[in-house]
Amino acid sequence: MMQSKVDTRFLGTIQNSFYGIPNLPEPVKQFFMFLGIGLTVLIISYFIRKYGVINLMTSGVKESVRSLFSKKKKTAKPKKNSKTPWKALTDQDILERLVMTRAELDISGERSGQRTLAAIANVAGTENIDVVVTFKDLVTESLLIPGAKVKCIFAEMLKDSKKVNAFVGIVKSYTKDKGAVITRTSSFGYIKRRVFARRKVADQRYIKIKIWRLEDENFDIDFLLDKAEPDILIDNRKNVGAVMKVPQIIDISKGGIALYGSVREGGNMVSRNDKILLCMLIYMPKRKTFQPHLIYAEVRAAKSAGNGMSRLSFQFLRSLKIPARKRSTLFKGQSVMAMNLAQNEKN
C-alpha cells in the first residue's frame, strides 16, 4: 500500500510539472517550425547527392514497369573473360588485323617428316602478298633459309563463319637481327597447332629414360650404351606425384617428350638445339614387358625449374636400331622391374 502511494504521488508531480509549462508565443512557434523545415530539406539534399536517391527510385519504377508488361525472358550476359574470335570479311581485313595488333606468329618448317618450330615472330607489316615479321624467339635458323616453305599460325579468327588461323608461304629473305619477309602462297586456312596429341603418364614406373648429349652426328651407339654414363637418368622404382620435384615424365607424344630432369654431377649440360641420344623403356601391360626404344632427338626447350631441376622438351627426329644384345639390358634389372609391375597389377 505504501509503494502504491509513492508511485501515485510521483506520477502526479510529473504531470503537474508538464501541465505547468506555459504556452509558447506565436513568433517562437513559427521560428521552430521554419527551422525544422530547413533542417529536413538539408538532410534530404545531402542523401540525394550522396546516394542518388532519385535515380534509384526512377530506375526501380522503370524496372517494375518492365517486369509487369514485358514478356521477354532475360538473356544471360556474356562473361567478361570469354573471348570470341575476331570476325573478318576479306583476306585484307585479316592482314590489316595482323599488322594493327602486331600479331604473334608461330613459323614452322618441315624436318624429318614432321612440322618443326622455326621461330616465334610478330607481324610488322605487309607488302602486297609479302608479310614482314620481326623475331621474338629464333628457334631453328636452318629452317628459315630463303626459298624454304613455312607454315605461319596466328590467333584464331572467323572468315565466312569458318575458323582461320594460318597461311602457307615461302621465305623471301631472312636476317637474324631484322627478321624475315614471307611471301604468301595460299589463302588463309586452319591448321592444328599440335600435330600429335600429348599424353600424361599414368605411372612414372612405366617409362625409363637415359639421355646422352651428342657433340655431332658421328657417334658410336655401342660405346655410349656400354661405357658412357648418361647425362640424365629417369628411373623411378616408385610412382611419384606430378607436384613432386623429382625427375619424371611430364607428357609424351608420337613426336616428342617433355620431362623434369637433372644433369648428373660432371655430366654435359643440354640446351636448345643440342642433339641427343635418348634411350627409353616403355612398359607394355598386355605383354608384361618393357619395350625398348633408341631415338635420335633434339632439345627444343630447356628451362630451369629450381632445386637443380630443368624442364626439358625433346623432338624425336628418327629411330635408331638397337643392338640385339642390348635389348634386354638397356637398364639394369629391367626384367625384374617388369615382373614387379606385373605382380602389382594382379594385386
Description of the molecule:
This protein has 347 residues and is α+β, with helices and mostly antiparallel strands. It is 26% helix and 36% strand. The strands form 2 sheets. It has a 7-stranded antiparallel β-sheet with strand order 9-8-12-13-14-11-10. Strand 5 and strand 6 (162-175) form a beta hairpin. Mean pLDDT is 82; it is low at 1-21 and 67-78. The chain crosses the membrane at residues 31-48. Keywords: Membrane, Transmembrane, Transmembrane helix.
Question: What's this entry about, in short?
Answer:
By secondary structure, this protein is an alpha+beta fold. It folds into 3 domains: 2-69, no CATH class; 86-184, Roll (Pnp Oxidase, Chain A), CATH 2.30.110; 204-346, Thrombin, subunit H (Beta Barrel). It is built from 6 helices and 14 strands.
Largest beta-sheet characterization: 7 strands, antiparallel
Average pLDDT reading = 82
Number of discrete helical segments? 6
Strand content: 35-45%
Poorly predicted ranges (pLDDT <50, ≥5 residues)?
1-21, 67-78
Number of domains: 3
- Structural category is alpha+beta
Q: Can you tell me the overall shape? A: flat
Please bin the fraction of helical residues. 25-40%
CATH fold-level name of the largest domain: Thrombin, subunit H
Strand order of the largest sheet: 9-8-12-13-14-11-10
Distance from first to last alpha carbon = 93 Å
Transmembrane segments: 31-48
Keywords: Membrane, Transmembrane, Transmembrane helix
